[in-house]
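Researcher: For the annotation table, I need structure tokens for Transposase. Please keep the output clean. Sequence:
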Amino acid sequence: MERYQRIVVEELLYARQFTSEEDRTAAITVWNIHYNYHRPHSGAEGQPPASRLWDGVTNVQPSYT
């Protein structure tokens, strides 16, 4: 959990400015999908955590297809 927090801060929260709490919340939602379904993880042999799901990816937004 601590590593996730460091990564979200470095890759998203400190990387850009947000004009509102709603903008930040929306960005975190999209970033979490990227983190779990697309971003390579060293602890998972370079695969995203969702690659370990039995049913595969089911909530990918159109911008990631």
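Researcher: And a one-line annotation?
Model: The mean pLDDT is 81.
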